[in-house]
Write a structure and sequence with these properties.
Length: 312
């Protein structure tokens, strides 16, 4: 079949690469316009654009999907099927209906749970024991189309969202090819979603990173790993912002008030949390500095027990 691919970040690259290696023809790639990325805010190509260019594929980067140029480009490419993997914009119905067989999506959750922009981060933040990928038909409603196939993956209690997302990208790419083969052979079967069981995975914001020490140790730990590698969980000590990069839960009770540092030695910072629990911080990043283990941080920033983390 002739396939048009919509995608932008690294998550989409394995799916595009699997398509390129398949028996089907990728007639064109649609990705978001180049934008400033990273600390230097340098304008760079998206991972999908880099991959497409390396294989000599036509790349199209429309600012808006309702422009006449979009319809003209899709008509020229004449795709049988559209594939979407983390493109980053809502596709209008005119685009969804353009390919002969419609469009399918590689979505990083076990639908109908975690529809929306940040399914992996939200699953980790919520402490879910597993997640997965669903290949679904795209419809005008958000992530609400029929499901062709699913694959599951457990989430370890200390795994960060980037590790989970990386694995899901590979699993989803393999599952995608299976579904495309079924569509080409006319044997694909769609399962309707139970909309009453749907949940929404809203886009992550920087403000969500501020740690509420009144939460349980597990809830804070899940937020630390769910917001890694961006935008990170953070707190304040003596008025200075401190990013918490890595942590673990210590099953040792404390009577100290939430946010109180009960121990800062042996390369770890023990912090009292809600419910009389404690969280251990293993790696931090001070404002304007590199990430470092707590032992190195304490060497230059000694902390006395009884100090408090706070909002400012």
């Amino acid at each position: 079949m002739r396939v048009v691919f919509f995608g932008t970040p690294q998550f989409a690259v394995p799916s595009l690469e699997q398509l390129i290696q398949s028996a089907h023809e990728v007639v064109g790639v649609v990705t978001q316009p180049d934008r400033p990325r990273g600390r230097g805010h340098k304008v760079t190509d998206s991972p999908v654009k880099v991959t497409a260019a390396a294989h000599g594929l036509p790349v199209f980067q429309p600012a808006k999907l309702r422009e006449p140029e979009v319809a003209a480009t899709l008509t020229h490419w004449a795709p049988d099927l559209g594939v979407v993997a983390a493109y980053g914009k809502i596709l209008p119905e005119s685009v969804l209906n353009h390919p002969r067989l419609g469009m399918i999506n590689v979505h990083a959750s076990l639908l109908p749970r975690y529809r929306g922009a940040a399914p992996v981060h939200r699953a980790v933040i919520d402490g879910m024991p597993e997640t997965g990928v669903t290949i679904m038909r795209m419809v005008p409603a958000l992530d609400a189309g029929g499901m062709f196939a699913k694959v599951t993956r457990p989430i370890g209690p200390d795994e960060t969202s980037d590790v989970v997302e990386r694995d899901l990208a590979v699993l989803g790419a393999s599952l995608l090819i299976d579904v495309i083969e079924d569509l080409a052979a006319g044997r694909a079967v769609e399962e309707l979603q139970d909309h009453t069981q749907s949940t929404y995975a809203a886009k992550i914001t920087k403000e969500e990173g501020l740690i509420d020490w009144a939460l349980s140790a597990v809830a804070i730990h899940n937020r630390v790993r769910g917001l890694y590698p961006w935008p990170h969980a953070y707190t304040y000590l003596h008025g200075q912002r401190l990013i918490v990069m890595r942590s673990h839960v210590r099953p040792e009770p404390t009577s100290a008030a939430p946010g109180t540092i009960v121990d800062a030695s042996s390369g770890m910072i023990h912090v009292a949390t809600g419910y009389g629990e404690r969280l251990v911080i293993d790696e931090v990043q001070p404002e304007g500095r590199r990430a470092m283990n707590v032992r190195d941080y304490l060497a230059g920033h000694p902390i006395q027990p009884g100090a408090r983390f706070g909002d400012r």
